[in-house]
Each structure stands twice: as C-alpha cells, then as structure tokens.
C-alpha cells in the first residue's frame, strides 16, 4: 500500500513538472529515466564529462578543425514528413555555421559574455540521406521509460544506423506529442544520448543499445525556414526557422548539458546543480521559449552574471541563442578526442582513453623483486593486471593479491597496468 502511494506521488510530480515546463528536448528525460532504472547513471556520466575535460588538456590537436560525417535517416509516413533535400542540406549548413561561429547573429552576444564565447571548429559533412517509409508511430512513453528509439530499428518500422562509431546518425521523424489521459503534456523536438562509454560498463548497465547512439529530431524543426508549425503546448503554434534544435541536440551528443544543469528534476535547489562548465554562469532553470535579458535565476553573489540566454544549451528561442562558451567547446572537442574519436578519424584507442584513472603506489620501488601495490581499491582481483618490460613486451609475471614477483626477471624498468571496464592504473617499477 505504501509503495502504491509513493508511486502515485512520484508520478504526479513527474506530470506536474512536465506540464509546467513543456519539454522541448529529451536529454533531461534520458538522464532522469536512466537514473531511475540504474541509480548511479548520472554520477557515471558526470565522470565521463570530467574525463573528457581532462583529455582535452592532454591533447595536442587543439588547433584542428574536426569533421564529423553525418548520415540522415528520414523516416516518414505522410508526404509532409518526407523532407526534401534542400531542408536537409540547409540543416547541415546551420550546424556548420553554429559550430564554426559563422552564424550571422554571433555578434548579438552581450558584451558581458564576449570574452567567454568561441569557435568550436567542428565541421559537418552530409554523407548520405536514407528515406524509409513507415506506418510506425514514434511515441514517447514516460511511464514505460521509452523514448522513440524504434525509429532506429528497421525491423520495426525505423531505419538501422550506419556505424555509430564513425558517423553521426540523425533520425528525422514525426515524434508524437507526449500525452496522458488525453492531455497534451508537451512536444519533444528532439533528443540525443550523451557519450557514456557503455562498452566499458558492467554488462547489466549496457543501456541504451549502442546502436541507438545519435540524434533524433522532429521533422518540423529541421533546416532553414521549415514550413511546418509545432504546437509545443504553450498556447500557440511556433514555426522553427533556424534549425537550432539540431545544434542543441548535437551539443548533448558531444557531451554538453543544459546550462542550468538539469537540476529541476528532483533537486530542491536547482542552483546547486551545475552543468560542469566553468564559464557558463550558474542558472537554476531554463528560458522557456523566451529571450529575457534580465533573467537571473541564481544570484548568490554580488558579481553574479545573468543567465546566459544566448547559449545554445538553454531553451531560449531560436532567435535568441547564438553561442557556445570556451568551456563548452573544450568539453566537446575533448569528447571528439576521446569517447567519440572515431568520428573524426583520430588515431585513438577507444578501449582505454575514457577509463577513469586510479592512483596507486608501489613499494618498495626500486625493489629486489617483490613489489606491493597500495591503492584505494581493496580488491585488485577485479582488475586485469599486466606487466610490461621497458620495450613494451608483455611479461608472464605471477601476481598474487597485491604483490608482484619479479625476482626471476632481469634488472631494469618495468610497467604495471591494471584495467577493468571502468578504471585503469599504470605505474613504473624499477628492479635492482
Ligand atoms: Zn536539451
């Protein structure tokens, strides 16, 4: 009985937050639903963000323009959903403008933010457009924790992705309005999964299906001057003319969170939840289809800046947004240099670049043969531990518990490396 009441309360809270804010992007929902199914999911992707930021500081590719090849799937039922080539081409142009700071409205950024905005130097090329006619409905079922991922599976009326590691797949379809008991709770304009390295998670956390990686957009928000009107549940229909839902979703795909840190789901004070980016001012709520320069949802200190409504990762109007910050750019490029490195054809080892590093110490070091590993991890048996010599050749060394026995090996320099699905440690050993 108690359980039923609790379920009902959380269900009502979910409905209330949805109907008051009108969902326009599914990222909140992705993370929120995954967190419910797999407690710790949010923490894990936060770790991914942190790793990506660190990766950026380690890389030497920071002056390159990266090119992402794009495959577009138009999955249509009515003729109007079968977008023509010019809308799709114009969407790629918009991505190129906004991700290379060539957008004409870039100068509209307010002076207070002029020093923190930048050019991501990310280029997009259209590799292929795949048209699939369907009679499948693409629905969001919040209560079954389901997004419209059936659009990504050909056997159930969608379109299978092209290699998700090497191409950004964008699926365009009619996303059905979110309803409950006949009431329109809002319209999802698109959603994307953040990079989350699921290959390296425990098997039971392998969600979502790796083939679901990419961006989904409603057909009415794609390209320049899309003629179709959207009813986002705000009392009037809106025409999306600037194709910036795709810019926002690709931002998520490259690791960005909303500038308000998505704290409104479940957090008492959402100013406490940050987007993990240093140079976006703290914000506690989204701009709900407004462009209000006075908006300042978190103003704890005297030198606090207003909310950065011109940021692509807010929910301001398409005419209002025009910029990414340098911090956001560093993160996106860091993701392209680690988790999504195959997209931009960097020579990278995707099996290790994103693993969280653990500090260990080895003692005694140097040693005559027996080395002990000291680490915060009690059970080292969860790691695959290998020893390499100075030329990188794997050594067949016995490792028992926390000790490594190199007694019968020649003197010199060795390396120990331990890895599991989420973590890695590396250390030098010197044998006398
Ligand atoms: Zn979003």
Commentary on this structure:
It is a single chain. The chain is α+β, with helices and mostly antiparallel strands. The protein folds into 2 domains: 23-344, Collagenase (Catalytic Domain), CATH 3.40.390.10; 356-431, Penicillin-binding protein Tp47, domain D (Immunoglobulin-like, Sandwich), CATH 2.60.40.1270. 19% of the residues lie in helices and 21% in strands. The protein has helices spanning 2-21, 27-37, 41-58, 85-98, 244-253, 326-336; strands spanning 66-76, 122-133, 168-173, 178-180, 183-186, 190-192, 215-218, 229-230, 238-239, 356-357, 360-363, 370-375, 384-389, 394-395, 399-400, 403-405, 412-419, 423-431. The strands form 5 sheets. Strands 2-1-3-7-6 form a 5-stranded mixed sheet, covered by helices on one side. Strands 10-18-17-13-14 form a 5-stranded mixed sheet. Strands 11-12-16-15 form a 4-stranded antiparallel sheet, with no helix packed on it. Strand 11 and strand 12 (370-375) form a beta hairpin. Helix 3 packs across helix 6. The longest helix is centred in the N-terminal third of the chain and has 20 residues, at 2-21. The N and C termini lie far apart (68 Å). The relative contact order is 0.14. The structure holds zinc ion (ZN). Zinc ion (ZN) is lined by residues 25, 27, 248, 252, 258.
The oligomeric state is: single chain
Radius of gyration, in angstroms, nearest whole number: 24 Å
Under CATH, the topology of the largest domain is which?
Collagenase (Catalytic Domain)
Ranges where pLDDT stays below 50 over 5 or more residues in a row are 1-21, 55-60, 198-207, 264-268
At the fourth CATH level, what is the homologous superfamily of the largest domain? Collagenase (Catalytic Domain)
3D shape: globular
**Helix and strand element order:** HHHEHEEEEEEEEHHEEEEEEEEE
What is the count of structural domains? 2
């Amino acid at each position: 009985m108690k359980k039923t009441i609790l379920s009902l309360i959380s269900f009502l809270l979910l409905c209330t937050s949805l109907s008051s804010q009108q969902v326009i992007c599914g990222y909140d929902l992705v993370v929120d639903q995954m967190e419910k199914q797999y407690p710790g999911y949010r923490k894990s992707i936060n770790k991914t963000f942190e790793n990506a930021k660190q990766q950026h500081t380690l890389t030497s590719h920071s002056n390159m323009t990266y090119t992402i090849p794009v495959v577009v799937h138009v999955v249509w039922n009515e003729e109007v959903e079968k977008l023509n080539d010019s809308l799709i081409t114009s969407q790629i142009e918009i991505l190129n403008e906004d991700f290379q700071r060539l957008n004409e409205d870039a100068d509209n950024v307010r002076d207070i933010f002029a020093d923190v905005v930048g050019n991501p130097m990310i280029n997009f090329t259209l590799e292929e457009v795949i048209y699939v006619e369907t009679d499948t409905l693409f629905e969001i079922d919040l209560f079954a924790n389901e997004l419209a991922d059936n659009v990504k599976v050909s056997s159930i009326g969608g379109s299978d992705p092209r290699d998700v590691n090497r191409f950004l797949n964008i699926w365009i379809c009619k996303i059905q309005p979110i309803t409950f008991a006949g009431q329109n709770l809002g319209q999802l304009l698109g959603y994307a999964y953040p990079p989350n390295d699921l290959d390296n998670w425990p098997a039971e956390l392998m969600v979502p299906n790796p083939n679901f990686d990419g961006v989904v957009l409603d057909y009415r928000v794609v390209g320049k001057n899309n003629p179709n009107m959207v009813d986002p549940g705000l009392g009037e229909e809106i025409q999306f003319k600037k194709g910036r839902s795709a810019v926002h979703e690709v931002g998520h795909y490259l690791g960005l969170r909303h500038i308000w840190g998505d704290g409104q789901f479940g957090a008492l004070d959402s100013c406490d939840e940050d987007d993990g980016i240093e140079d976006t001012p703290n914000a506690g709520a989204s701009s709900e289809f407004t462009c209000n320069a006075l908006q300042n949802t978190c103003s704890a200190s005297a030198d606090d800046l207003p909310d950065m409504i011109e940021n692509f990762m807010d929910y301001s109007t398409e005419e209002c947004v025009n910029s990414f910050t340098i911090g956001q750019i560093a993160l996106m490029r860091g993701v392209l240099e680690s988790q999504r490195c195959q997209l931009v054809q960097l020579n990278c080892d995707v099996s290790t670049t994103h693993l969280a590093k653990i500090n260990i110490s080895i003692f005694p070091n140097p040693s005559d043969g027996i080395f002990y590993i000291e680490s915060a991890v009690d059970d080292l048996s969860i790691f695959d531990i290998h020893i390499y010599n100075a030329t990188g050749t794997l050594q067949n060394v016995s490792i028992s518990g926390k000790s490594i026995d190199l007694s019968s090996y020649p003197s010199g320099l060795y390396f120990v490396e331990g890895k599991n699905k989420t973590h890695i440690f590396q250390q030098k050993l010197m044998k006398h």
